[in-house]
Design brief:
CATH topology of the largest domain: Rossmann fold
Strand content: 15-25%
Number of strands: 9
Strand order of the largest sheet: 2-3-1-4-5
Largest sheet: 5 strands, parallel
Distance between the termini: 57 Å
CATH architecture of the largest domain: 3-Layer(aba) Sandwich
Radius of gyration: 26 Å
Mean pLDDT: 89
Number of domains: 2
Structural class: alpha/beta
Helix content: 40-55%
CATH class of the largest domain: Alpha Beta
CATH superfamily of the largest domain: P-loop containing nucleotide triphosphate hydrolases
Shape: elongated
Length: about 280
């Protein structure tokens, strides 16, 4: 059985190796780009002996290294005697690769005196034996960046996906929007307890303020639509591999309406078994 803690990414230039590396980094992999093949067995020995505090490794190797074609097969044979790395080969059609190199205006790494299409075909021919060794071949011709991330998550690291932690923040627009917000919702259209003498000095943690805000039909409609929206959206973030999501709820001063809505969302999301952290930024100013 292959060890999903140890991935080796290789493939055709322009097929998405850099995108895959960045995404795996977000999933907690320690990514090393273009490590000479001769050094891979030494790295594996250090990792297996736990001489470094690295749980998961992803190596990106390809033909940028002059001796890759001859050295990598030997290195892979050596490390497979001690570990079970998963070798992933990224591929794409000639037409797709040609379009990508044209759009980015990047030179092909083995271009030299050849045209781009000649370089692509030559690299494909040379990498054919490496492709045969792969545990997974992923064709990226017809998928975009987000689809590639989704595919890698489902096929390669689904058992190691990090749990999503959700931060709920109430805030007042008069004090500025939280800079780390992923999603922001404005509640200034809801009935404002500030204009009720008995409620003005209380926060949204007060039962009286909470009851006042929630008795409004507007509030109930808003919460119903917001929870349905989050019920749809949050699983998408989980599939993408996002580890932290900040949802900010704002009202004018951050003391009444936003606090009530955040606490309602907290109860809703905890029933869904999400890991929730709550921060009422401006409630007691």
């Amino acid at each position: 059985m292959k060890d999903s803690r140890f991935l080796i990414i290789t493939g055709i230039s322009g097929s998405g190796k850099t995108v895959a590396s960045r995404f795996l980094e977000d999933l907690g992999y320690y990514c090393i780009d273009n490590l000479p093949a001769k050094l891979i067995p030494s790295l594996v020995n250090i990792w297996l002996r736990k001489e470094v505090e690295i749980e998961k490794i992803a190596l990106v190797v390809d033909m940028r290294e002059p001796g890759f074609l001859s050295e990598f097969p030997k290195a892979l044979e050596q490390i497979r005697e001690k570990a079970s790395p998963m070798l992933i080969f990224l591929d794409a059609s000639d037409e797709t690769l040609l379009k990508r190199f044209s759009e980015t205006r990047r030179p092909h790494p083995i271009m030299r005196n050849k045209s781009v299409i000649e370089a692509i075909r030559l690299e494909r021919k040379r990498l054919a034996p490496i492709k045969e060794m792969a545990d997974e071949v992923v064709d990226t011709s017809s998928i975009n960046i987000n689809q590639l991330k989704d595919l890698l998550t489902k096929r390669l690291v689904k058992k190691k996906r990090q749990a999503l932690q959700i931060g709920l923040v109430s805030f007042g627009y008069k004090y500025g929007v939280p800079t780390d917000s992923d999603l922001i919702f404005d509640t200034r259209f809801l009935p404002n307890p500030f204009y009720i003498d008995d409620l003005r000095g209380k926060s949204g943690k007060s039962r009286k303020v909470r009851d006042y805000v929630l008795k409004s039909r507007e509030t109930r409609d808003f919460l119903e639509k917001l929870t349905r929206f989050l019920d749809y959206l949050i699983p998408k973030f989980v599939e993408e591999g996002k580890s932290y999501l900040t949802i900010s709820i704002g009202c004018t001063g951050g003391k009444h309406r936003s606090v009530v809505i955040v606490d309602m969302l907290k109860d809703f999301l905890r029933r869904k078994r999400y890991d929730i952290k709550v921060y009422h930024r401006d409630a007691f100013k």
